[in-house]
Amino acid sequence: MSDTVLHLERLIAAPPERVFAHWVEPALLVKWWGPEGAHIPEHAIDVRPGGAWRTTMGFSDGRRMTVSGVYRTIDAPKRLVFTWAWEDEKGERGHETEVTVEFAAVFHPIRSIARMSGVLISIVWPSASVGSMMPMFTPVMSSARQ
């Protein structure tokens, strides 16, 4: 495993189809996307190969952070591949990486695993560490179980 690739894996008590939906349906995505305390005041999501996506996260201190990319692979409900780049205050995209998210049923048909990998260590949340990334899955876990 490369030291520049971050791999996250989370067991979610929901079928892969429901978890996948939380990654591709805008009304569901905005319920969990971003770190704890963030809300999504703006989003555009065109879920198809070659379709663009863009979300802006807002924080209680007034900060806003925008990230965008392009969907490369959509294999429902098994796999998503998309690019990821933070935008600066002028809307210019920074370093682009590729993210792969895989969904699979494990042990029981009502449990699924969401596995996310990509070169994200320094760009998912600026100054982020692996430990600060795991809470990102908590809201999707709660929302997908409903």
Write up this protein.
This protein has helices spanning 16-24, 26-32, 130-133, 137-145; strands at 6-12, 39-45, 52-58, 64-75, 79-87, 97-106, 108-118. It has 4 helices and 7 strands; from the N terminus they run E-H-H-E-E-E-E-E-E-H-H. The chain starts with 5 loop residues before the first strand and ends with a helix. Mean pLDDT is 79; it is low at 119-134. The radius of gyration is 15 Å and the shape is globular. The protein has 146 residues and is of the alpha+beta class. A hairpin with a 1-residue loop joins strand 6 (97-106) and strand 7. It has a single domain, classed as START domain (Alpha-D-Glucose-1,6-Bisphosphate, Chain A, domain 4, 2-Layer Sandwich), CATH 3.30.530. It has a 7-stranded antiparallel β-sheet with strand order 1-7-6-5-4-3-2. Helix 1 (16-24) crosses helix 4 and helix 2 (26-32) crosses helix 4 (137-145). 21% of the residues are buried.
Distance from N terminus to C terminus (CA atoms, Å) equals 35 Å
In terms of per-residue confidence, which ranges show pLDDT below 50 for 5 or more consecutive residues? 119-134
Overall average residue pLDDT = 79
The CATH topology annotation reads as: Alpha-D-Glucose-1,6-Bisphosphate, Chain A, domain 4
- Classification by helices and strands: alpha+beta
CATH superfamily: START domain
Work out the number of β strands.
7
Highest CATH level, the class: Alpha Beta
Q: What is the annotated CATH architecture?
A: 2-Layer Sandwich
Strand portion = 35-45%
Shape: globular
What does the main sheet amount to? 7 strands, antiparallel
Count the helices. How many?
4
Query: Going across the major beta sheet, what is the strand order?
Result: 1-7-6-5-4-3-2
**CA-atom Rg in angstroms:** 15 Å
Q: Estimate percent helicity.
A: 10-25%
Topology pattern, helix = H, strand = E: EHHEEEEEEHH
Number of domains: 1
